[in-house]
Amino acid sequence: MTIKLYEPIPEATEEVARALIGCAITVHRVLGPGFKEPIYQRALCLELDSQGISYESEKRVSVRYKRWEIPGHRLDLLVGGCVIAELKVDSKLRELHRRQVLSYLKATDLRLGLLINFNLEILKDGGIKRVAL
Fold it and tell me: Are 88 and 131 spatial neighbours (Cβ–Cβ below 8 Å)?
């Protein structure tokens, strides 16, 4: 797959991202901050299930290096086959987290990832960041 710089994200991918954001907000409204990441991940999977949204949890992907495949990447969630969700429970999202999602996008040839930090009082206050190629 060849990606052109600044090519718009497909609308179907944007729809998946909006649905994922809605599910994350619902999970955060119910649980609030303070739990460990696996709790939010499981709750988000349950919410996605309840909304009929397909996902893969803990999806393993390899990194292509020249002619070799190097295993080792693990996606928290791949939603709708097109949006990566990287979940965090941290005081704030960092550049390191953005780079991690970028590496996932490059390894999978996908265009859009969401960093979701559940450790905030209000998720909308900087708890969700888009990362796109």
Answer: no
Closest listed residue to residue 110, CA positions, set 80, 83, 129: 83
Tens of pLDDT, residues 28-38: 999 999 999 99
**Which 8-state DSSP code applies to residue 50?**
H
CA torsion, ordered 55, 77, 12, 5, to nearest 10 deg = -150
Identify each DSSP E strand in the chain by its residue range: 55-65, 68-79, 83-88, 112-117, 128-132
User: Does the structural domain 11-132 have CATH classification 3.30.870?
Assistant: no
- Summarised one tens digit per residue, pLDDT across range 21-70 is 999 999 999 999 999 999 999 999 999 999 999 999 999 999 999 999 99
What are the C-alpha distances in Å from 119 to residues 24, 31, 57, 102? 12, 11, 20, 22
